[in-house]
Request: fold
Amino acid sequence: MQNQQNRTQEWTFPGCPVAVTEQPDWSTLQKRFSWLRAMDGVPQSPVYHAEGDVLIHTRMVTEAMLALDEWSARTPEERQVLYASAMLHDIGKPACTVIDANQQISSRGHARKGEKMVRRLLWLGEELPSATPFALREQIARLVRLHGLPLQFLDKPDPVRAVIEASQLVQLDQVALLAEADVRGRICADQQELMDRVALFRDFCQEQECYTAPRAFASDYSRFAYVQSERGDPDYAAYDDTHFEVVVLAGLPGVGKDTWIRANLPDWPVISLDNVRRAMGVSPTDDQGQVVQAAREKARELLRQQRSFVWNATNITRMVRQRTIDLALAYHARTRLIYLEAPFSEILKRNHERAYEVPEPVIYRMLDRLEMPDSSEAHRVEYIQNE
Reply:
């Protein structure tokens, strides 16, 4: 239900001193944010968005969010996250929108693109006085990524799995609220049908016990067993038959991976792609195939001995991480994925002080490619922020 009362409260976009009320000052916001200006004039399909371009839709969605009773009843931090998510939910559309030969407009992939753009924007504090704290940033980024799930979950091959896995990443009641604002903030013939889908999503998630919190599992091992099995049962308490562990580190250069190893696992064998590369005399700009092959062979030796070890590399994409984790799983190892992060300015400073400095443009490109690890990738996933 939408609240008709006049609100007087004011708060701010994360890290931004622009006051927000029930009627945001869009002129000020557009002057401040280039990504908001980029939405101006970006077309949308008139079938689904008769209201107009992406900027018009974004304004309508944001104002719809601020008008909802449920938004008003949330904590100040949640209101901040949900407002930012409403404003940013289609940030990826300008980069993804295409018009085909039949003049059909689509923006396939804009949610995942938007997640990466939001992460960079809020981590670097671009056009903001400061960076957004890690936990808030990731909430917003994941809401942007999953904002279409309530309208799409029934089309998934396994809707139950889709919502359970999503619940491990973000609160699904927040996803539902963003989706409701997204529907209210558009003009289309099937608006009521879309609202019904959001209502069904809410009921479905409550039935799966994952609406306001992650779906609970008997153990981390059981959760990962469910994710790995196509026909898993979320209530099954899987037997943990692992006897050793492989720790896979991930993070941009300069986040402190070597320091973390020395402080936490000083006696463990370490397979470092950087060290293998230097031992083989291979430049970081050369083909890395032989380096990875040599490192994997070292890993196989340890796995055959059932010895715990650390795999130390940047591992910025899920596909790269998965290769190492799959290798460990083939030998029945328990896997722990640890993502390390630091303020971006500190990363650049530490990198400059390293004996083997990575060119800054390379670090920025890695940031744009970074895929944040999530709990579906390993038996245990940890996030560590170094100052």
Observations:
- The radius of gyration is 23 Å.
- Confidence is low (pLDDT under 50) at residues 1-11.
- The chain has two domains: 11-207, 245-385.
